[in-house]
Amino acid sequence: MNYLYGGTFLFVGLFLINVLFSYQNKHIDPDFRTTLKYQIYAFPLFLIANMLIGYGIKFGFKAIHNLTFVLLTSKGMEVIIAVLMGYLFFKEAPTWKTLLGIFIIVIGVVISKMK
Fold first, then answer.
1. Where in the numbering of this chain does the EamA domain appear (predicted)?
2. For 24-33, how does the pLDDT look when each residue is reduced to its tens digit (9 = 90+)?
3. How far is CA 43 from CA 21, 26, 33, 40, 47, in A?
4. What's this model's pTM, rounded to 2 decimal places?
5. How far apart are alpha carbons 73 and 18 in whole angstroms?
6. Could you give the angle at which helices 67-90 and 32-64 cross, rounded to 10 degrees?
7. Residues spanned by the domain of 19
8. CB within 8 A of 70, min separation 6: which ones?
């Protein structure tokens, strides 16, 4: 069950953080006051996202007992989410180089888990 909680919390937290920053980049004027106003309004969502990420890492560590692997997996999730945000917000289609990079990350995670 810790696997499910850890993976779900990590994915939702990382997804929420990336949505908030992608939205800011696309729709919020870079003026200091406007950015500050957005950050203040979005603060509760950032807090929720950070709590989800923290608990995702905690449950992932409980399940796997290897913090390095949990953190590597979360970074891999974040790369995939970043590619998704690029497509959703900026209509950037991933190129073969992006897919090759994701493949290399997956291979690295698999190698780090091998004994």
1. 7-111
2. 999 999 999 9
3. 12, 18, 15, 5, 6
4. 0.86
5. 16
6. 140
7. 1-113
8. 6, 57, 60, 61, 64
Q: Please give the full DSSP string across the chain, using - where no structure is assigned.
A: -HHHHHHHHHHHHHHHHHHHHHHHHHHS--SHHHHHHHHHHHHHHHHHHHHHHHHHHHHHHHHHS-HHHHHHHHHHHHHHHHHHHHHHHH-----HHHHHHHHHHHHHHHHHH--
Angle 67-90/2-27 helices, nearest 10 degrees?
40
The per-residue pLDDT for range 46-77, each reduced to its tens digit, is 999 999 999 999 999 999 998 888 888 898 89
Using an 8 Å Cβ cutoff, are 87 and 93 in contact? yes
Count the domains in the chain. 1
Handedness of CA 55, 109, 104, 4 (dihedral sign): negative
Q: Which amino acid appears at position 39 of this protein?
A: Q
